[in-house]
Write a structure and sequence with these properties.
The chain has about 90 residues and is of the alpha+beta class. It has a single domain (about 5-80), classed as SH3 type barrels. It has one helix and five strands, in the order E-E-E-E-E-H. The chain has one helix at about 65-80, and strands at about 5-10, 20-25, 30-35, 45-50, 50-60. The chain has a five-stranded antiparallel beta sheet with strand order 4-3-2-1-5, covered by helices on one side. A hairpin with a 2-residue loop joins strand 2 (about 20-25) and strand 3. The N and C termini lie far apart (about 35 Å).
């Protein structure tokens, strides 16, 4: 699993399971993630790489703010909403 700075990832474990984040920093087996709302860019959450899944999308981190981060992740949140209904 190759996670780089700016990668959009989905949390697989913990209280933030099934939510989307952006990798702010990668330090060995840990990744610092932020979503711009509950986890700001200045106070990211550290997660083990085993507990996240990359989506294959990389966001441009140049000039990134919490507001821009929320807008970037909004596309992923709306894609997942309602996709699991069976009928």
């Amino acid at each position: 699993m190759n996670v780089v700075r700016g990668s959009v990832v989905k949390a697989l474990a913990g209280r933030d399971r099934d939510r989307f984040f952006v990798a702010v920093a990668v330090e060995g087996r840990c990744v610092s993630i932020a979503d711009g709302k509950e986890r700001k860019l200045l106070n990211p959450k550290r997660k083990n790489v085993r507990h996240i899944s990359p989506t294959g999308t990389v966001a441009d981190m140049a000039g990134m703010t919490d507001k821009k981060l929320r807008k970037t992740l909004a596309a992923f949140t709306t894609q997942g909403a309602g996709g699991n209904s069976t009928g």
